[in-house]
Specification:
cell shape; aminoacyltransferase activity; Acyl_CoA_acyltransferase; 379 residues; globular; 16 strands; Aminopeptidase; alpha+beta; Peptidoglycan bridge formation glycyltransferase FemA/FemB family protein; nine-stranded mixed beta sheet; peptidoglycan synthesis; 2 domains
């Protein structure tokens, strides 16, 4: 019948959720069923989107309960996993909101994992060198996705709101990320020599310096998370952020690797028996993420951080990944920007900055949603 909405959302088994992602090729690790076991302070649920009887999308929704009230924020970090090019995306999102309302959610928060804009390494370097430019968004992107633009307009016109700030870090996941493509534009794999050639002179020199100094990089076991965590806390103190407990990383390891034994790995860069850098990497299908990194203040001159990144890049490529994701950056490119060092380090890989659509809320109970946003801003 004309005008009949056939899209429905309902709970699905974790196995069906995971099978959809596997068949699709990849999705954010934050949208895997296993992530619910990591975020134990939230209640997780696997959802499926159905067009009649056909499964067309999935999502991990995390519910956070309001104090003293049986009302919830329904949060889908870097999700849901939909075909955003379909013409019925509006119906799919409406079906999610309708389901969340029945689940007593006061609002739904989504973070579509779709790239909207891209800036090449050359464009970023030119922006950094230009004193008149302070933010990446002031620079014309090298590519803009028409599909993502359509989704953006849809969200804007269907009562979804965003609180992402100008600097590019959302309340939950970052809007701006840095990615290294591991494929050519024609879909063929880039060789190790091509990946190395794409890096800047400083990165290539530091990789060679680490090799000459005798830095050895290896993958570790679960027990090595404790060694990683020791220098991670040193990094946190040095860089002024609050580190997570070792138990958090152990929970990640157990949950993600129970779902796929090769999903999370820990890398250790050692020099003469001393641990000088360590990282964790997560892979879902054709997408690999550098998730956490740490380095010691001592022996920084042996360039363990460059060595461990180069090993992870090569391993991701060898496993058939299409993208090596260095995760969040801010869009500030001014000389005095406090995060300029981060983007300069990442741009040295020869990759590209990408802007996703950010995180968007759809209020179901507007007073509760307003109170929640007010509380989050004050906190």
């Amino acid at each position: 019948m004309l005008g009949c909405v056939s899209i429905t959302v309902k709970p699905i088994p974790a196995a069906e959720h995971l099978a959809f992602i596997t068949e699709r090729g990849s999705a954010s690790f934050l949208q895997t069923p296993a992530w619910a076991s990591v975020k134990k302070e939230w209640r997780g649920e696997s959802l499926g989107w159905f067009d009649a009887d056909q499964l067309i999308g999935v999502g991990l929704v995390l519910y956070r309960k309001l104090p003293k009230l049986k009302r919830y924020l329904a949060y889908l970090p870097e999700g849901p996993v939909l075909d955003w090019a379909r013409p019925d995306v509006d119906e799919q999102l409406d079906a999610l909101v309708a389901y969340a309302k029945k689940a007593r959610a006061f609002a739904v928060r989504i973070g579509p994992a779709i790239v909207h804009r891209r800036w090449s390494a050359e464009t970023i370097k030119a922006a950094i060198a230009d004193d008149a430019v302070t933010r990446l968004s002031q620079v014309e992107p090298d590519d803009t996705s028409l599909v993502a633009t359509r989704v953006l307009r849809l969200l804007q016109h269907r009562n979804w709101t965003t609180s992402d700030g100008d600097e590019g870090f959302a309340a939950g996941q970052p809007m701006f990320n840095f990615q290294l493509p591991l494929l050519h534009t024609d879909g063929t794999a880039r060789t190790e020599a091509e990946l190395l050639k794409g890096m800047n002179q400083l990165w290539r020199r530091n990789i060679k310096k680490a090799e000459k100094a005798g830095v050895q990089v290896r993958t570790g076991e679960r027990a090595d998370l404790a060694r990683f965590h020791e220098i991670y806390l040193e990094t946190a103190q040095r860089d002024g952020f609050t580190g997570r407990a070792l138990s958090y990383f152990e929970t990640m390891w157990d949950a993600l690797n129970a779902e796929d034994e090769d999903r999370m790995q820990v890398y250790l860069a050692e020099h003469d028996g001393d641990l000088v850098a360590a990282t964790t990497m997560i892979r879902v299908g054709t997408h690999a993420w550098y998730s956490y990194g740490a380095s010691t203040t001592a022996k920084r001159d042996v360039r363990g951080s460059n060595a461990v990144q180069w090993r992870m890049i090569r391993d991701a490529a060898a496993r058939g990944c299409h993208v090596y994701d260095l995760r969040g950056i801010t869009e500030g490119v001014g000389a005095d920007d406090p995060e300029i060092g981060l983007i300069q380090f990442k741009v040295g890989t020869g990759g590209e900055a990408v802007a996703h659509l950010g995180e968007w809320d759809r209020a179901i109970n507007k007073p509760l949603h307003f109170a929640f946003l007010t509380y989050m801003k004050r906190r």
